[in-house]
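Input sequence (173 aa), recorded before submission:
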Amino acid sequence: MEDVGALLSVGSTSGDVLLLDGDLGAGKTCFSRGFVRARTGREDERVTSPTYLLSNAYSVDGGAASVYHMDLYRLSGAGDDLSPLDLANVFANHISLVEWPSRLREKPPVRLEVTLTVEQTMQDDAGENEEEDEESKSRRMKLVPHGDRWVERLRSLESEGFFEDLIVDASTC
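Predicted structure, token format:
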């Protein structure tokens, strides 16, 4: 997941919004860690889930912009509970990684939807211990671009062979 996050960070600019959806433990924060580390150029950057803080910001481009990693899991999306995040400003002027985007009242029209799922695979001796259980799970990622900017970026990466193991949904293109 970190490698794909890093790949998608290349060329990211202010106004880029990535909505990260999926099961608990599917890799949303791992994806974000790869994205943030690659985009900031700091391989040892500590990138953790912002579940309790709601939002972590990482400075990029000499401080001209930030990557905002937000986790909306604890919010309902009702009333004013999203207002402290200043989403309109963040979406317009920074790079945004948003976990649990189902809490958003409105999704930005230009965005990349990243859906991560965990699937159990069949193995003869799976289930003997926790480590083997984790190894018997496979993760799937689905990328759905909205807006020409994301469609073109994904097409470019796909044509260069970066997404051979991923499913790119072109139905919205």
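Checked by second reader. The radius of gyration is 17 Å.
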